[in-house]
Design a protein that fits this description.
six-stranded parallel beta sheet, binds adenosine-5'-triphosphate, P-loop_NTPase, ATP binding
Length: about 675
């Protein structure tokens, strides 16, 4: 144990280190600003004003430098956050400070290592049992940008160490949007964050086990370690709703990554612009995996037979070419169509393949006749011959998404053909409406149909996609994401127990298949960082009734409190509970069944630090104090019950509601509590 004066001297030395790091950050910022100005400035040369980045010997280089420096400058601006949060001393005597970004001195020597650098791994992974050559680990306490203290762990002692700084960080009151956890990432989380880029990772995790945090830090880690590949291909984060996205939106920028696109699956398909709403039954059919087969048939079913296109064995296809006439036989054409059907990935490419085969057949005959190969102008002419076009239109008609949608929704005979053996007649009848006024699910179908017609541009695919709350995605939504993943990898995060959509997944293997990934590493997180043990114990009573086979959370937190208030005057009781909750620091979340939430919102309007959330929208959020109002009503929520989980959706909403509290939970009820909450 160092004496007080030694500890003070060490703290002062660290404050000096921090000040030095700040000065060098400023110097790095100044240097970057200078580079930016050199390339992006409005340079007036010979009276000519140059455009943005249009300077230097190579315009493209100038443009690239001008752009490259913009996020770097932003990343280097002074923020209210300490520049390092940890330090390690290695066995060989070397030591490193670790922070959110790399900082170097005037010689290029590192003052602070980026938490994502390979060397930083030891900071997160070293333990009493496996020191990873680390002799000592220091964690800093800080308030905003100010270092307030530190705590040392002597790993040479080989003893487990309980970090007060980690405990404080986990238990601190929540005052706003989600924060990064770079300072306190735990070994099992770090192990997931640093999986190599090609790994498709699927993380099942109980509430508050840090899935969202892991996903976001993994995105930042990948961008840092696979910069070249991922800067170009891009990283996408898909979240369940806009409220959730705004809650998490600050994390990646704090980690220095502002280029990641964060969207809901609705935004990905433009479904947020939907102008009509499906009945529950119609939505169920439209989100079902079988719809992919229907869409496939609705497109490829247009391919006809050569005989039906009017080609006879005697005549074949006659192609007039000036004074010549080429004849392609029935067998030749049948083979061309069969090959195109077999070897082309999209319908549109298939038509072109048949057209090319026709030109090829005619060319061979022309070569035999004239002894030389005709040029490309000739080929274009052949393609335009009316008989060729008529044949193609009969055997492989031109299509676009709109036409197929219109036929599928508006032409009963066509729909019967497209759905026969895939959907029941009743189900098929639900596919109707006006494609011009689409529902959200119609836009999924449009996206699916389009995929059979033509390939997406490579630029529309992402190098890595992080998908949060993935248990709630329907097969058709998964397929939309899969089409934007291409050869890229995914990190899939979720909790089957929190699945509340009618199509919520009951197995991760199936969900990953819908996401188009068959080589997947599955893993489960069970250590809860959000919900104190006393509260998680209540939520865990509900878990066995949710119809899923997942491990319960074990909280690492022994603090927190749980209260039950039974009162026939529910609004008054809720208001009183909120009043009491406000006596403590932090955010208060009031969670109730959707309709009740509306009423409570009016009742509690204008109360600072209080947010009223409908149980169906509480997923992913957290509050210091949660007041759950009338659990029985939440359990009864009828809205989105699906066939596989009909009586469980409400219970799952309750499970979500009970697991949002960081410190305190008050359950307010007038009716008896649901029996599933009983011990
Ligand atoms: N290593 C950690 N250090 C500090 N805080 C952490 C750590 N891991 C997670 N947390 C915190 O625990 C809380 C829960 O994390 P997160 O929201 O990522 O969990 P989740 O598994 O996605 O939860 P849910 O399933 O309820 O959405 C967050 O406040 C997060 O910052």
């Amino acid at each position: 144990m160092p004496s007080d004066s030694t500890a003070e001297a060490e703290l002062q030395a660290e404050l000096d280190n921090h000040e030095r790091a700040r000065r060098y950050t400023a110097a790095m910022r100044a240097a970057t600003t200078e580079i930016h100005a050199a390339y992006a400035g409005e340079v007036d040369e010979g009276g000519k004003s140059r455009a943005y980045g249009d300077v230097g010997p190579d315009k493209l280089f100038g443009w690239a430098m001008a752009n490259y420096t913009v996020p770097r400058m932003a990343d280097l601006t002074d923020r209210d956050i300490a520049l390092f949060f940890g330090r390690i001393w290695m066995d060989d005597g070397e030591d490193f400070h670790i922070g959110r970004r790399h900082i170097r001195d005037e010689h290029g020597d590192p003052l602070v290592l980026d938490w994502r650098a390979p060397l930083s791994e030891s900071f997160y992974r070293a333990s009493a049992h496996d020191r990873k050559d680390v002799a000592r680990r220091r964690r800093f306490g800080f308030q905003g940008a100010r270092i307030t203290g530190f705590e040392d762990e002597n790993l040479l002692l080989g003893e487990a160490f309980a970090s007060d700084i980690l405990t404080e960080e986990i238990e601190r009151p929540r005052t706003g949007p989600m924060r990064d956890i770079a300072a306190t990432i735990q070994p099992e989380q770090d192990e997931l964050i640093r999986r190599e880029a090609a790994t498709n990772l699927c993380v099942q995790g109980a509430p508050g086990t840090g899935k969202t945090a892991v996903g976001l830090h993994r995105a930042a880690w990948l961008l840092y370690n696979y910069t070249e590949k991922l800067d170009k291909a891009g990283v996408l984060v898909v979240g369940p709703n806009e409220g959730f996205l705004s809650y998490i939106s600050g994390v990646l920028p704090t980690l220095g990554e502002s280029s990641v696109w964060q969207v809901t699956v609705h935004q990905l398909t433009g479904a947020h612009t939907a102008t009509a709403v499906d009945s529950r039954e119609a939505a169920l059919v439209k989100h079902d995996a079988r719809m992919a087969l229907v869409c496939e048939r609705a497109v490829w079913g247009h391919v006809g037979t050569v005989a039906a296109a009017g080609i006879t064995p005697d005549e074949g296809l006659l192609i007039a070419d000036g004074g010549w006439r080429w004849r392609l036989g029935l067998n030749y054409l049948e083979t061309a169509v069969a090959n195109a059907r077999k070897h082309t990935r999209t319908y549109t490419a298939g038509r072109k393949a048949v057209e090319d085969a026709i030109v090829q057949g005619a060319r061979r005959q022309a070569e035999i006749r004239s002894g030389h190969s005709p040029d490309s102008k000739w080929a274009t002419r052949i393609k335009r011959v009316p008989a060729v076009q008529a044949f193609l239109d009969a055997v492989w008609p031109k299509l676009n998404t709109k036409t197929v949608m219109k036929k599928l929704y508006g032409d009963a005979d066509f729909r019967a053909d497209a759905t026969r053996g895939i959907l029941t007649e009743d189900e098929a009848a639900l596919l109707s409406g006006k494609p011009a006024k689409p529902t959200a699910a119609d836009l999924l179908i449009t996206d699916e149909i389009e995929s059979y017609l033509k390939l997406r541009e490579p630029s529309e695919s992402f190098g890595h996609i992080v998908i949060d709350e993935a248990q709630d995605l329907s097969p058709m939504q998964c397929r939309v994401i899969a089409r934007r993943s291409g050869k890229g990898s995914v990190t899939v995060l979720g909790d089957l127990a929190q699945g509340t959509t009618p199509w919520a997944a009951s197995s991760w293997t199936d969900q990953m298949r819908h996401l188009g990934k068959d080589r997947v590493e599955h893993t489960e997180l069970t250590t809860g960082f959000r919900v104190p043990a006393v509260i998680i114990e209540l939520a865990n009573r509900v878990l066995p009734h949710l119809g899923v086979d997942v491990a319960p959370a074990r909280s690492i937190r022994s603090d927190g409190s749980l209260d039950r208030v039974e009162d026939p005057d529910l609004p008054a009781a809720a208001r009183e509970a909120v009043g009491k909750a406000l006596a403590e620091e932090g955010l208060v979340g009031v969670i109730a069944a959707d309709e009740r939430a509306e009423a409570l919102r009016t009742l509690l309007a204008g109360t600072d630090r209080v947010e009223v959330v409908a149980a169906s929208l509480a997923k992913g959020l957290e509050f210091d104090h949660v007041v759950v109002v009338e659990p029985a009503e939440i359990v009864e929520a009828p809205a989105s019950a699906g066939p596989s989980s009909s009586d469980r959706v409400g219970l799952r909403h309750l499970y979500v509601a009970l697991t949002r509290a960081v410190s305190r939970l008050t359950v307010v009820h007038a009716r008896p509590l649901p029996p599933e909450m009983a011990a």
